[in-house]
Amino acid sequence: MRIVISVENRLDYQLITAGYSLTVDRWDAFVRERLVDEWLGAYTAMSTWRTEVLGITQGALVYLFDAAPTLKPVTDLPADDRVVAVWGHSQQAANPRDRARLTGFLANPSAWSRARLDRGHLVAHAAGGGLDLNLFPQAMNLNRGRSAQGRVWRKMEAYLARNPGTPLFVRPIYVGPSWRPAALDYGLLNGGELWSERFVNDV
């Protein structure tokens, strides 16, 4: 199924970063000054309910998480809590991958497999990403590097894993009330330059 994404949900990261000296030390300030309001504005515009976005810190990562569907009735249709964006710095994985916990994350994982979806990580485990907030329904071909975009996704993940301390962000873009993103903006700092990509989460 081909997903159509509104142009209003596209952010011009090159324009946003113009004139800003991007460094590892100033990354958090840059995100808070230049990106957070852009992300929240775009997310509010794409949501059909009054959002309740929380800032949740996990290690070297900060998640913006909309908990409105759990905290209050938001729509007549089923709606999901979901991540608005995550940013921070990559780090070496503190522990081996918890496969048993990952397996138990879904009540019916075979349904995801039939839909050609994986339990994807917004930030890869090898780059310091955890479970829970960090998991999302990801197209298999994108997650496993089986498409042109998937190979770029894996290349960015590998760069972060090889270079602990690298500044990064991931911003899911949604169409409808589900926590499955239609697309994701992925960015990282490479030699003082922002490397950003848009990935379509299309099966």
Order of strands across the biggest sheet?
A: 1-2-3-6-7-8
- Helix content range of the residues, please? 25-40%
Number of helices: 7
Distance between the termini: 7 Å
Report the portion of residues in β strands. 25-35%
Q: Kindly report the average pLDDT value.
A: 89
Quaternary assembly: single chain
Give the class from helix and strand content and strand pairing.
alpha+beta
Determine Rg (CA atoms, Å): 16 Å
SSE sequence, one letter per element: HHEEHEHHEEHHEEE
Strand tally is 8
Low-confidence stretches: none
- Could you say which overall geometry the principal axes of the C-alpha atoms support? globular
Largest beta sheet, briefly? Answer: 6 strands, antiparallel
Can you offer a commentary on this structure?
This protein has seven helices and eight strands. Helix content is 29%, strand content 26%. It is α+β, with helices and mostly antiparallel strands and 203 residues long. The termini are close together. The protein has helices spanning 13-17, 27-46, 68-71, 99-103, 109-114, 140-143, 148-162, and strands at residues 53-58, 61-66, 82-89, 117-121, 135-139, 167-173, 183-190, 193-200. The chain is globular. It has a six-stranded antiparallel β-sheet with strand order 1-2-3-6-7-8, with helices on both faces. A two-stranded antiparallel ribbon has the order 4-5.
